[in-house]
C-alpha cells in the first residue's frame, strides 16, 4: 500500500523464540509532520511582526532626538499595526486550539436569524468602510439552533474574507435561503477569485493562496480553519465555488434539524 510505514519490533521470549510485531505508523508520522509544520508556521508568523516592532523601537532608542514628531508617530503607528497583528494571530490560535482540543458541544440557543445576520452585515459594512457595495438578502426568516457566538464568528469570517479579497467598488452579497434540506448562508463576492487547484486546501491552517496579500489585508491564515471547525460542530458544511478573476461564493449549509422556519413559511412550503 502506498504511504505505508511499518515499525517492526522483535521481542525475544522463551528459549530462542522471537515474536515479530509490526504496525503501520504512517498516520503517526503524518501527524508529527503536521505538528512540526504548525510550530514552524506559528514561529514564523510571530517572528516577522516582532522583528518589525523591534526594529522601530531600536531606531527610536538610538536617535529619538533626530526625528521629527510626525516621523515618531508614524513609526509608532506602524509598530502598533504589527502588535495588533500578533494579537489577532494569538486570539485565532486560542480559538482554534479550544475548538480542536474537544471544546464542549456548542450551546443550543434559539437564535433569531434576522438579528444574527444583521450583526454580520454590520461587521461587514464596518470592515468595508464604504469601499464595497454590501447587501443582505434574507429569504425566509426563522430561528437557528446552536451557538450564536460561534455562528456569528463563522459567518462574519466568511464575509470579512469577501471584503479583504474584493477590490474597491466590488459587490458583496450576504444571502440566507432555506429549502427541504435545510438552510444556507452564502457570501458572494466579485473579488479576485480562487484557482480550482487551491480550493481543497483553503481550510488548512495557514494555507493562503497569496501570502503577501493575506498579510497585507490583515489575515492570519487561520480564518477558514476556524470556520470549518465551527460548522462541523453544528453538523454544517462549507462549500466553495469560485472563478479566478470573477469572484467566489462561500456557503454554509446547515441541516434541517438546526433550522426552525417561521410558522408562515413552514405552512407555505
Ligand atoms: P486569511 O487570513 O489568509 O484570509 P483564511 O483561512 O480566512 O486566511 O483564508 C485562506 C485563504 O483563502 C486566503 O489567504 C485567501 O488566499 C483565500 N480566500 C479566502 N476567502 C477568499 C475570497 N472570498 N476570495 C478569494 N480568496 C479567498
From TrEMBL:
It is an enzyme of class 2 (transferase). The keyword Zinc-finger does not apply. It is found in: Cell inner membrane. Keywords: ATP-binding, Cell membrane, Kinase, Membrane, Nucleotide-binding, Phosphate transport, Phosphoprotein, Transferase, Transmembrane, Transmembrane helix, Transport, Two-component regulatory system. It is a multi-pass membrane protein. The keyword Phosphoprotein applies. One of its GO terms (molecular function) is phosphorelay sensor kinase activity. GO terms for biological process: cellular response to phosphate starvation; phosphate ion transport. It catalyses: ATP + protein L-histidine = ADP + protein N-phospho-L-histidine. It comes from the Bacteria. Residues 41-258 form the Histidine kinase domain. One of its GO terms (cellular component) is plasma membrane. This is Phosphate regulon sensor protein PhoR. The lineage of its organism: Bacteria, Pseudomonadati, Pseudomonadota, Betaproteobacteria, Rhodocyclales.
